[in-house]
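Methods: example folding runs. The two proteins below were folded one after another, and each record is reproduced exactly as written to the output file, sequence line first and structure-token line second.
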Amino acid sequence: MTPPRQTSPTRPLSRKDLQVIRSLLPYLWEYRGRVILALAFLVLAKVASVAVPLVLKGIVDALDASQNPELMLPLALILAYGGVRIASVVFGELRDAIFAKVTQRSIRRVALKVFRHLHRLSLRFHLDRQTGGVSRDIERGSRGISFLLNFMVFNILPTLVEIALIAAVLLVSYNVWFALIPFVTAALYIAFTLVVTEWRMKFRRRMNEMDSRANTRAIDSLLNYETVKYFGNEDFEARRYDENLAVWERASIRNQTSLAALNVGQGTIIALGVTLLMWLAARGVVDQTLTLGDLVLINAYLLQMFIPMNFLGFVYREIKHSLADMERMFSLLDEHEEIPDKPDARPLQIQGGAVRFENVSFGYTPERPILQDVSFEIPAGHKVAVVGPSGAGKSTLVRLLFRFYDVDRGRIEIDGTDIHDITQQSLRAAIGIVPQDTVLFNDTIYYNIAYARPEASREEVERATALAHLKDFIESLPQGYDTLVGERGLKVSGGEKQRIAIARVILKNPRILVFDEATSALDSHSEQAILAALREVAEHHTTLVIAHRLSTVVDADQILVMEGGRIVERGAHQELLAAGGAYARMWALQQQERRRESLGEQPDTDADTGTPPAGTRPLRAEPL
């Protein structure tokens, strides 16, 4: 990734901040009636708050014997004092209650938008992403939205309104200096806070970066717990984790020390302004140009003005932190959707389910071609198998058929329609897959099977389970279908995970079936049982089988042999054996391997690549 260009510390950050705030406006505008009503209550609350010192001044002047020798209890003023204080509280709480739905709905809508966008991004992005960092960015970003909206409406705006009202009262009622000093003090305070906070944000960003990176490494290590244990690398993982925490610690310390400097500067500015204003007020009382009530009024206004001002500094800092947190979350929305639907894409109208690859070439990167001019067809209701060594491009065919990637050249058609012209949702609804590496949700067995069709009845789920030869296993468990499979399905074996995947695709019942090494984790006995079930399920379905064990594809209508991204042989099982080519060599080696296994010997051939060990000669190709 190219590092950001270094510029002045204020303008680019302010532009980004405004972009983040602008992105929230549509969510606020959805409830504009509530926003306007909340702002009205905000103004009313602050008008009542500013009226409190005015009423207090009247009470003090009424009770000042030097100004009013005939003292009487100012009952009306005392009742008015209580009334405006109650009004200030009531209007403030009404503002909070009205605006609560706006805040929570905005958080929900933004989080959902990011979540949906992540699912729209290509497989390439998800292979490169770091799950721990992304999850932490979303968590902090959602929390930042709540903080930003609440404190912008409930703290910054009220404080600014209050400052304006107080300045207006002081300007009208007293010498211009009584309004000018608070205004200048507030301006200096805000300017100092802005400048220093902008400087401090680089420490916060560094903290966020290291926090996300440490979280990513921690989650990655815990997800691969068994691998860590296999190699005894607990200390190595702890060191890697601590390296990021050490950088985070240094950034955190600098963040805290710079905060102390900011607080000292803010306190000094407020102290100077308050001291100067109180000196003017006290001198006015001595000169008898002001009353004690005026002194109380000015002092009360100072408290109302500068105490929130001190809090305003904290709020602004936290808002800047929230914007930094939100910036990372919103950057996910800027990720390019690599495989979008065409504007005029239409749903796939599945008929027979015929699949056709026409001169398809593809590479994950330009310098790494995977498929080269691959052409084949699976007629509706037929079964085609693809075999070959690892890295030949077999599984890439499946990813292209699901349109996780777009072909570089050529086209893929279903029932004569290019898959680029149909919606991805309808395309994937028409295809079911049993992958080689089945990953399950950290939920129950029932949930994982029913995930193919959440609206399916329990009877349909149990029927799919029986067809996948999984029923006896589930009934042997104390909690049956409610058994939790653990994160990524680690509590069940590889064979059981594949049976769950098979049950899932049976429940989905799509027109096109894909089996990508569907029985690779099963023993020979279980494999034969599953193959029988798959044959029953695949009957009258268009089926693509990616296979390592050639014995699982002998009944295919056509077998494609791939090497180096090209189809080097094609034909039925017996035809390919008779041809004596690559398929026949692979078959002979696998038969030899099976004989050795039946005798309890270790295989000394690579049956996938078809490479015999040095000094050996493959057996003669034998028909099934």
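Second run, written to the same file directly after the first:
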Amino acid sequence: MQAVAPSYRHVLATYLAPHRARLALLAALMLIDLALLLGLPRVVQTFIDQATSGAALPALLTIGVAYLAAALGQNWAQVGWQYVAHNIGLLATNRIRTDLTMHCLRLDMGFHNSRTPGELIERVDGDVGKLQNFLSEFLVQIVLNGLLLVGVVVLLFLLDWRVGLPAIISVVLAVLGAVLLTKLLAHYSIKERQASAELFGLLEERLSGTEDIRANGAVAYVLRRHLERSRTFFRTSVLRALLSVVSWRSLNLAIDIGAIVALAIGAFLALDGTLTVGQVYLIFAYTTMLDQPIETLMRQLDDLQQATASMSRVQQLFAMQPQVGDEGPGTSLPEGPLAVELRGISFAYPNDDMVLRDVSAQFPAGAVLGVLGRTGSGKTTLTRLLLRLYDPTAGTVLLGGVDLRAVPIANLRARVAIVTQDVQLFSTSVRNNLTFFDPTIPDERIWAALDTLGMGDWVRSQPQGLDTVLATGGSGLSAGQAQLLAFARAFLRDPGLIILDEASSRLDPATERQLEVALTQLLRGRSAIIIAHRLGTLDRVNQLLILEQGQVLEQGQRAELVRNPDSRFAQLLRVGLEDALA
């Protein structure tokens, strides 16, 4: 509790402060509910005392009507504050989810590569969901039931101190017991949330690979791993729930003992004539009320432990900062094709060996650079540095003569586009897939891009044109159609540098020829970097860079390297590019 208090204060200040008006309404409805709840037994006491003393029927009917009105008012007040509380909780948690999702999208690729999407979904949705009760009802319930406890004890003391004493002793013991159990419950709640995240991470990863798992006979292994994670989650959940139930029953027993003693004392006082029958009923009603706030407080404390665990995990996620970020106002990249310059670049992924070692190269604006190398030579890593998904461990990357560290991330991503062999298409309209949900791009530009790249007729043939919804992952599209949509997506951004990372490696030669015209249009007036294994793909490049084991083996103009029989590229052409780089 002590450790997470600052986190709670931050969350309350950030996500509840905008709802001050709703909070004021919530407080008003809560106080009305409390006042009527404590007042209802007094109305019944008055009715009993009036009836036993021989009051007239109209007076008794008046008391009955007053009780009915108070009961209805109390129920409506309770419904009202619960609705307002849930409304506040949903608004706050939805904003947390939005902020957390945005934060995750800003984190480095190293962060995402070390965590499964399922684990992140559980963090963003599952953990934040556990905070909803804390943000909507926890404080309200703590205040409401705390005041109810105090009110009941005070009213019992006002009735007779001998009745109030055992009640307050049992309440104090119950509250102290609840505080002592808080840390133990928090420990098991954190373990439960972690076990849940690991289970969801496994499910997401395995379900996304269902085809490969079934084809390679790994179903039994996956089920076994799922059973292991499920067993761990089951054990931690049962242990936490069992501890919670035992704790609640123990505290409930302390309250019941105090209530029985108070009621017994009240009965003796009634026999002595000190208390009336109505007052004895009042003791019964108020001591019975003690169970409700203690039960609610214990449930809230149980939810608090889960919220504490979730809060800790959410705060850990918020505390993670990207290693790559904007540094100051920055310098925008120049318009038009971008020159590429690498100065002594070295790079290693976290906890790994060097992938690139002292790579230096320079290519003019408008050049089409072909990058060759075996698998693991650092080709894809080089493109990630150009997109500034990572910063180099040493050295400097410049585009258009500007150090990428000085370029705002938004400007860099607008001026550099990449098309990979794995085209990411979403379950939304063709328009949204091409514009990445940017409503400022007019349909005229979209149609122009599609017509330029030869996809306009296909889109027009679809039932709803640009509004046609594509299946997740581009299911139903041919590899060539998906690749052309990716080209159109890059074309719309009008980048100064476009990177093709083995974009046609999965296409058959006939389909690849269909893309040649589109590729020519895409590269016109731009700098380009093409990573490929196929010789045909390199016909359009005029500069070459060959990497081997993270170092520059050879670089220069393609025509000069072809004429030089001793060059590495000429050797690759003689032995066969695909075989040599396999």
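Comment on the second run: The mean pLDDT is 80.
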